[in-house]
Amino acid sequence: MRVLVIGGGQNSEHEVSLASAAAVATALRSIGHEVRTVTISRDGVWDAAPVATPAESLAAAMPALSWADVVFPAVHGALGEDGALAALCALAGVAVVGSDLRAGAIGMDKWATKLVAEAAGIATAPGYVISASDLGDVEYEGPVVVKPVSAGSSYGVGLVREPGDLLDALRTAARFDSRILIEEVMRGREIDVAVIREAGGVRWAAPPLEIHAAGLFDTAMKYDGTARFTVPAALTPAEAGTLTRTAVAMFDALGCAGVARMDFFLTEDGPVLNEVNTMPGLTAASQVPRMFAAAEVPYPELMDRLVRAAADRRASRERSATSRRDHARA
Ligand SMILES: Nc1ncnc2c1ncn2[C@@H]1O[C@H](COP(=O)(O)OP(=O)(O)O)[C@@H](O)[C@H]1O
Ligand SMILES: [Mg+2]
Questions:
Q1: Is the model more confident about 298 or about 228?
Q2: Which helix (DSSP H) or strand (DSSP E) does residue 59 occupy?
Q3: In angstroms, what is the span from residue 70 Cα to ligand 1's centroid?
Q4: Considering 80, 230, 322, 325, which has the largest number of Cβ atoms within 10 A of its Cβ?
Q5: Residue 150 sits in a domain of what CATH number?
Q6: Is the CB of 287 under 6 A from ligand 1?
Q7: CA-CA distance, 136 to 249, in Å (whole number)?
Q8: pLDDT, tens digit (0-9, with 9 covering 90-100), for 14-33
Q9: Are 199 and 287 found together in one domain?
Q10: How many domains in the chain?
């Protein structure tokens, strides 16, 4: 298939997205897909026309979009993972890997994710949202985690243990979003679960992964090579079953597609959902590919399945649109 891989993007995860996109492109080429790549700069300029404005460069990238059988938007964070690129592909009528606009947008918003999870009977850390313009009004009532409602890679996430540290943490979070989430500190093991929706619609979860982090799983640990993962996580069958069922339930509640990573704390009271990543890190060393490797799905094959799932979803949408039209005529 002809696959357009998009990387980069206009947020703090730009570099991570470059790494994901490069790995995805190499893997898809290695199994015989015809791959083109395009990179979005931090300023929103698509390198299809690097000297242009964002709008002009987007226009120049359109031929590549219509060339593609499938677009693979390996762009984490805002204006990528949040559904912006899925929306662009939907408008252009091109198959796209991963979740659609709605699931991407809700998954990117940690507060909205909480509301959906709680409504679906899935526990999350108790917390509340404030506006970045009201930082001074927050009172210290005990240890909390402070984080931007919408960011990633742990940017702006802080653990506050002393009243004197609260304002600094709030200001740091406010650099990344105008809404800030203040959460109770969850105690428990940090376990990630990856769920894939394959061509044909079957969803399944790979064996969970445990992150070993003393304290917060912070940005430095994520990318300096010191992160230690155990895949599969050492879990009882009951724990693994509850985690994977909960992950699939959340995947379905949001209506995700492609692959999504559901991150949990495994507490004494069971799994507590921390967050949903609808375009998780996709280098071969990232959590999701490592979980599928543990399920005997090698990295290039995982990328291939994602591309096929996207093409299949587009084809079945077209089939149902045609049958709706035929019904209307009849
Ligand atoms: N409520 C919480 N209690 C305990 N630790 C938390 C809590 N929220 C976040 N963390 C820690 O901070 C890390 C980053 O927070 P997260 O919400 O996952 O942000 P990001 O989207 O940037 O990955 C988590 O992996 C976890 O280690
Ligand atoms: Mg996280």
A1: 298
A2: helix 54-67
A3: 33
A4: 80
A5: 3.30.1490.20
A6: no
A7: 38
A8: 999 999 999 999 999 999 99
A9: yes
A10: 3
